[in-house]
Design goal:
Layout: H1 2-20, H2 39-52
Helix pairs in contact: 1-2
Length: 70
């Protein structure tokens, strides 16, 4: 939990550092999270959003249910 947050935080800080030094980037950052939205997963998502302050959050949903179910 803490290691994951530290890694994402480090990535975002490097990205912001490049931007603050006048660097050019052609895209933003996509953080693919685990998808859990209850319990420990929810607290991890909340900590992540609070830390990196994303401009966009995308939730993918399928009306068919889980694609990996057999």
């Amino acid at each position: 939990h803490d290691y994951y947050l530290a890694c994402v935080h480090s990535l975002v800080e490097m990205y912001r550092g490049i931007l603050s030094q006048g660097g050019t980037v052609v895209s933003g950052i996509v953080v693919n999270t685990h998808g859990w939205i209850t319990g420990a997963g929810l607290s991890l998502l909340q900590a992540l959003v609070t830390d990196i302050l994303p401009t966009h959050v995308v939730q993918l949903y399928s009306a068919r249910g889980f694609a990996n179910q057999y």
